């Protein structure tokens, strides 16, 4: 056991705030030495205080501590936000939810379930963005998936609360709704020129990187005793599948339809590989950026292609459009229709419906058969869901779909090494073939490594680590199209193998 918990701690079983505090201590005790974390935190605080004191001493116009406005601290607190909600208001909302859950009076419907997962999702996403080290390796995703799993393992949630979240996630099937909005909305919302030209430009690097990642992962997996079947479908595929929302979740549904177990079994097995792969991709991006500084001839400083004309194509941005809620409603209806069509074709071709939904959306976007207004509406749904429901959804997944004992069981030195070999092979392939494709090696390697990140969140983290946010259009191609292609190919291959 990594942790020991005294029995008297269970007296706080109904208190969300105590549960969150205990979980954070346990989490860092397991995954990052607590003393090092405290040392970094104290050093950071000391540095901030020392800098502030120096500024106040050097600038006589600044008021001293004694003459500072009394309301300064309160104003600072009022300026903080948790998931777009002002901090003080969020504390009040969280208290209401906690008291209701403690008393067993939480509404057992979608409203009660959303209140629980949104409160925890906003809180842990905020914490994940603030904690040192963790904020640079996908902290919000890690906390929102793993902390609820730890809380459930130690019995920190009331049975009534668990039943309410179960109703929302499994009976009302919020999971399918979010998947459909993320996948269809993101594909239909892409610039068609970028979609077509990007697929042409990125085809060779993505294919070469994917092949090298698969070969490297299989070889290293065999060295550590993993079967090719397990290495490919449960380590390599989730890493290059496009993240949690667009990769792991559709894969879990497809695996469930083919292999017969419930999706939660596969989420617990697939998610750790995606998280570890994302960490390696961020590290690779930072190393590549350093290489670019030392050898300027290898980098375009944010430009992928050695041609200004070609780069202008990918710097085109769609004009900002005000959200039209009627169009958003039409886009939501169309997303539902795509999901239903995928289910209908599943009966004919025996390929899981969510996978067919992805393929149909790509074909419709390419053929321009969907009116631009409906594409805008679907993309508005995507933006709303990705901004407001992704972290809460991960809370629900952590509570119901990610058993802690299953996650801990898959981790080993060999597991981490296999994940690292997949990402490193992906980045190296892009680096070495770039010169043959009139691309800069550093940028090509960074974009290719985005194929192994945690979706859009991973793209931001990887490009931020390398200070190359201008590569986002190419990163989106690698993540969305590369991830969707991986999901489809893996599903077809699994159905054939089984």
From TrEMBL:
Alphabetically, the GO molecular function entries are: organic anion transmembrane transporter activity
One cellular component term (GO) for this entry is: membrane
Q: Does the keyword Lyase apply?
A: no
User: Any transmembrane segments, and where?
Assistant: 12-32, 84-106, 113-131, 137-154, 174-196, 202-225, 232-258, 270-293, 325-345, 351-369, 381-402, 408-434, 477-497
Q: Which UniProt keywords apply?
A: Membrane, Transmembrane, Transmembrane helix
Protein name per the record: Malate:Na+ symporter
Per the UniProt entry, what species is this protein from, by scientific name?
A: Kosakonia oryzendophytica
């Amino acid at each position: 056991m990594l942790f020991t918990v005294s029995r008297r701690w269970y007296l706080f079983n109904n208190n969300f705030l105590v549960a969150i505090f205990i979980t954070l201590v346990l989490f860092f005790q397991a995954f990052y030495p607590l003393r090092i974390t405290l040392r970094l935190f104290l050093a950071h605080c000391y540095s901030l205080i020392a800098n502030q004191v120096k500024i106040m001493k050097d600038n006589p116009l600044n008021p001293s501590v004694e003459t500072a406005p009394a309301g300064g601290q309160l104003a600072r607190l009022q300026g903080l936000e948790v998931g777009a909600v002002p901090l003080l208001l969020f504390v009040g909302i969280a208290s209401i939810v906690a008291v209701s859950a403690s008393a067993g009076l939480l509404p057992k419907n979608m409203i009660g379930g959303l209140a629980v997962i949104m409160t925890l999702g906003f809180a842990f996403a905020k914490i994940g963005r603030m904690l040192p080290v963790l904020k640079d390796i996908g902290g919000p995703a890690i906390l929102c998936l793993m902390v609820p799993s730890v809380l459930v393992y130690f019995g920190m949630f009331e049975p009534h609360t668990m039943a309410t979240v179960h109703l929302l996630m499994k009976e009302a099937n919020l999971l399918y709704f979010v998947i459909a909005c993320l996948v269809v909305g993101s594909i239909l919302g892409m610039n068609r020129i970028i979609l077509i030209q990007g697929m042409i430009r990125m085809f060779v690097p993505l294919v070469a990187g994917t092949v090298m990642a698969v070969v490297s992962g299989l070889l290293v997996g065999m060295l550590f005793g993993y079967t090719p079947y397990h290495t490919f479908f449960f380590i390599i595929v989730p890493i290059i599948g496009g993240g949690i929302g667009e990769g792991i979740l559709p894969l879990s549904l497809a695996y469930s339809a083919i292999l017969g177990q419930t999706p939660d079994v596969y989420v617990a097995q697939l998610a750790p590989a995606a998280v570890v792969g994302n960490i390696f991709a961020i590290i690779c991006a930072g190393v590549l950026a350093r290489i670019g500084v030392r050898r300027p001839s290898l980098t375009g400083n944010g430009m992928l292609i050695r041609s200004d004309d070609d780069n202008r194509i990918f710097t085109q941005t769609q004009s900002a459009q005000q959200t039209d809620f009627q169009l958003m409603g039409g886009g939501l209806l169309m997303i539902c229709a795509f999901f239903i069509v995928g289910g209908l074709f599943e009966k004919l071709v025996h390929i899981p419906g969510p996978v067919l939904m992805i393929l149909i959306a790509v074909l419709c976007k390419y053929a321009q058969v969907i009116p631009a207004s409906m594409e805008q509406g679907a993309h508005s749904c995507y933006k709303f869901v990705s901004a407001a429901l992704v972290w809460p959804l991960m809370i629900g997944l952590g509570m119901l779909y990610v058993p802690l004992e299953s996650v801990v069981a898959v981790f080993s030195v060999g597991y981490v090494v296999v994940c690292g070999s997949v990402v490193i092979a992906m980045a190296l392939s892009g680096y070495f073939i770039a010169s043959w494709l009139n691309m800069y090696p550093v940028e090509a390697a960074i974009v290719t490594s985005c194929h192994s990140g945690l979706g859009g969140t991973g793209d931001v983290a990887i490009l931020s680590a390398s200070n190359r946010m201008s590569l986002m259009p190419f990163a989106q191609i690698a993540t969305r199209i590369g991830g969707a292609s991986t999901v489809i190919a893996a599903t077809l291959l699994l159905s054939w193998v089984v």
